[in-house]
Amino acid sequence: MFSSRFHWDLAPNRLTRLLAEKRRAGATVLDLTESNPTHADLSYPEEIVAALADPRALRYDPQPAGSLTAREAVCRYYAEAGHTVAPDQVLLTTSTSEAYQYLFKLLGDPGDEVLVPRPSYPLFEFLATMESLRVVPYPLIYHGGWSIDCDALAAAVTARTRAIVLVNPNNPTGSFLKRDELRFLADLCQSHGLALISDEVFADYAFAEDAHRVRTLAADADALAFSISGLSKIAGLPQMKLGWIVISGPAAVRADAVEAKDKLEWIADTYLSVSTPVQQATPRLLELGKDVQMQIAARVRANLAWLESAIGA
User: Fold this and answer.
1) Which of 12, 75, 125, 146 is least buried, going by the fewest C-beta atoms within 10 A?
2) Average of pLDDT values for 284-294?
3) What's the 3-state SS for the chain?
4) Domain holding 275: CATH number?
């Protein structure tokens, strides 16, 4: 009766069952996997609620790519980090997960493949399979630091490969894309007609600057690239449900980028999923979210310092 996409074992795993048992028994649990910022005792500015009270939210004016006001706010976010992005490069989504869905719809036919890093974000298989695509992992290797196994990645490309997914910085390794890796990826994409999908939701949380790192592909790509991010991580506001895709690439793929934008707008127009109140509030939410972002960064740095002191002996 149901789709063959749902081939996963939906039963809770052993860790989930054990945690449930501990909590039912009243045990105190320090959950080191908690990643929901709204559950982490951060201080959220009260103005966030006020930002959603804009009277313009009462008027429905659907724009497939998202409102110009919100897209311009996204461009300012990149400008503050030294990157030039134009509003017509930006398409709004409700989340990065939806951004992946749009891009998988855009780039692949049923049975096509996307290359994804391992270890990395655990939802890739679910997101790709829901779009009838196949996930093919490529390894990240550790030699004093994490890097892409370029030989293994190149060997994983087949006639059905449509895109290479990057998580930059990676979850869970924390490693950034390096400039020499980007040059390799751009050459590989150009020779095989592939696109890059760069998940940059944690880009603002580097512990230190490094000239060898690539912070974003939004303005620094030598192949057709789609950079995705959103309020969930950069502003600690997952409940606001706003993400985006930035389309970029060199002059040689300008026509592809224009066609990609047109087709993505067609997909977005089918769903029109981003809420008007959040779009109207986006400029203010990005501004207010800076304080939340600083709190998260400070918490993570303190956690790291505690861990280093605890294991130092």
Assistant:
1) 12
2) 97
3) CCCCCCCCCCCCCHHHHHHHHHHHCCCCCCCCCCCCHHHCCCCCCCHHHHHCCCHHHHCCCCCCCCCHHHHHHHHHHHHHCCCCCCHHHEEEECCHHHHHHHHHHHHCCCCCEEEEEECCCCCHHHHHHHCCCEEEEEEEEECCCEEECHHHHHHHCCCCEEEEEEECCCCCCCCCEEHHHHHHHHHHHHHHCCEEEEECCCHHHCCCCCCCEECCCCCCCCCCEEEEEEHHHHCCCHHHCCEEEEEECCHHHHHHHHHHHHHHHHHHHHHCCCCHHHHHHHHHHHHHHHHHHHHHHHHHHHHHHHHHHHHCC
4) 3.40.640.10
